């Protein structure tokens, strides 16, 4: 029963879609376009659901492999037991979001074109910039299917992509150039600044990061919640009792001995961060291994599943090469993340030795240093990673400024922001494709393939 619940009613939906396609051949143009939009939305719902489900199942398989539970992989009742299917709600949410956006965009284009131009032949009219921008903006309301706590991050991510393509458009027309825009490593600089902001936020105010994002950093890194609390109190001038620190070290069975007797120490020693050992160098190695082991299932899934699902035809032609690419990409991303975490810890150790006194700026500077790990990733991935981290950095900065009353919240602002951003992205997709990033362009091509035929 649990295994069956993974499957969407894809066969019946595809059958219904094909029947709809056959029955609409003789219908008026608008009706045909709306039917095609419904077919696009339904097929993309299935695709998005299966991608999310596939990632979850592959993560489960890799975890079982790490635990050497090989028999469990072959037993569907164990592999897909009910307690491991918690991703289903998220998968349906993602399916509705993608399906509603793509199908809605195609339908809205047809309706807006009819309202603006009457019954003129849509093929003769072609794609009108105003129509595509307006349709993309309105279709962006599909973001309401996403959980409220994720909408802001998704809206900021869309904004980053929209600004990227609009900037590329302006630059191609010689309208505006940003200083440093031709730097070979501008994407790495952006990643450094944004990741430093995110890590500063995680150390100083972890509660304002999205819960899952903060939990991911916590699981990947070596720092315990109590150590974070000690650092936050110490940098804010609040007392940290020596007995609390000694109790923490005792509970962890740490060989490190805390000798300070004051409740206002100059800094929290780095020995609490790498508490399993007193050696900073050995602590670096332990953290690198821990971070890589914890992120390996995730990055393997994120690199292999898209190779199979989103590029299925290429996978059928060259399955071994596609899997090889996914595995290599997964190991490379795992090494990047492990190095980022370990170097961040090492930077804290170095700053402790140099400065002797703690300061909030240390945790931003450590983020800048650890961001050099981005050079482990392929050049084509660096801008994608920078633009992935950018929304988190902007979001945390916005909340900090809002809390100091520099900025204010706007009701449903994330829905409006996402809609406007998607309007700009769809304008570039239809009229200035060269200004979109390759990843966004290929994703839109995949999800809107039916509308382009």
Automatic annotation (TrEMBL):
The family database entries (InterPro entries) matched by this protein are listed as: Tmem135, TMEM135_N
Superkingdom, natural source: Eukaryota
Alphabetized, the UniProt keywords read: Membrane, Transmembrane, Transmembrane helix
Query: Where exactly are the transmembrane stretches of this chain?
Result: 41-65, 85-108, 335-354
Where is each Transmembrane protein 135 N-terminal domain found? Answer: 267-400
**Where, if anywhere, are coiled coils annotated?**
none
- Name the Pfam families for this protein: TMEM135_C_rich
The reply to whether Membrane figures as a keyword in the UniProt entry is yes
UniProt-recorded name of the protein:
Transmembrane protein 135 N-terminal domain-containing protein
Source species, please?
Saprolegnia parasitica (strain CBS 223.65)
Question: Source taxonomy lineage?
Answer: Eukaryota, Sar, Stramenopiles, Oomycota, Saprolegniomycetes
């Amino acid at each position: 029963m649990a295994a069956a619940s993974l499957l969407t009613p894809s066969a019946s939906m595809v059958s219904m879609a094909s029947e709809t396609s056959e029955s609409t051949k003789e219908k008026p143009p608008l009706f045909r376009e709306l039917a095609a939009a419904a077919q696009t939305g339904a097929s993309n719902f299935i695709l998005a659901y299966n991608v999310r489900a596939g990632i979850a199942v592959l993560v489960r398989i890799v975890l079982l492999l790490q635990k050497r539970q090989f028999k469990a992989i072959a037993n569907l009742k164990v592999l897909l037991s009910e307690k491991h299917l918690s991703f289903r709600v998220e998968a349906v949410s993602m399916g509705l979001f993608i399906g509603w956006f793509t199908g809605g965009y195609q339908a809205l284009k047809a309706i807006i074109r009819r309202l603006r131009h009457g019954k003129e032949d849509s093929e003769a009219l072609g794609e009108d910039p105003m129509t595509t921008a307006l349709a993309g903006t309105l279709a962006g309301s599909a973001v309401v299917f996403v959980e409220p706590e994720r909408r802001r991050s998704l809206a900021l991510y869309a904004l980053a992509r929209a600004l990227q393509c609009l900037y590329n458009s302006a630059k191609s027309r010689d309208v505006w150039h940003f200083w440093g825009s031709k730097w070979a490593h501008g994407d790495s600089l952006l990643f450094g600044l944004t990741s430093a902001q995110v890590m500063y936020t995680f150390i100083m105010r972890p509660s304002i990061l999205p819960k899952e994002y903060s939990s991911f950093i916590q699981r990947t890194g070596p720092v315990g919640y109590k150590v974070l609390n000690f650092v936050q109190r110490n940098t804010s001038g609040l007392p940290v009792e020596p007995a609390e620190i000694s109790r923490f070290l005792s509970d962890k069975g740490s060989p490190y001995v805390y000798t300070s007797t004051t409740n206002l120490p100059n800094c929290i020693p780095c020995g609490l961060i790498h508490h399993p050992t007193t050696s900073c160098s050995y602590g670096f190695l332990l953290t690198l291994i821990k971070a890589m082991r914890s992120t390996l299932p995730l990055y393997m899934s994120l690199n292999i599943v898209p190779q199979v699902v989103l590029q299925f035809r290429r996978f059928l032609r060259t399955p071994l090469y596609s899997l090889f690419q996914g595995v290599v990409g997964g190991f490379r991303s795992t090494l990047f993340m492990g190095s980022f975490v370990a170097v961040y810890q090492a930077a804290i150790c170095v700053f402790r030795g140099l400065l002797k006194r703690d300061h909030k700026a240390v945790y931003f500077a450590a983020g800048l240093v650890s961001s050099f790990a981005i050079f482990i990733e392929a050049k084509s991935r660096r801008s994608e990673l920078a633009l992935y981290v950018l929304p988190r950095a902007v979001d945390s900065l916005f909340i900090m400024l809002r809390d100091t009353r520099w900025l204010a919240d706007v009701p449903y602002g994330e829905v409006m922001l996402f809609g406007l951003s998607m309007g700009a992205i769809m304008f570039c997709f239809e009229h200035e494709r060269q200004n979109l990033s390759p990843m966004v362009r290929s994703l839109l091509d995949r999800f809107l393939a039916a509308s382009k035929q």
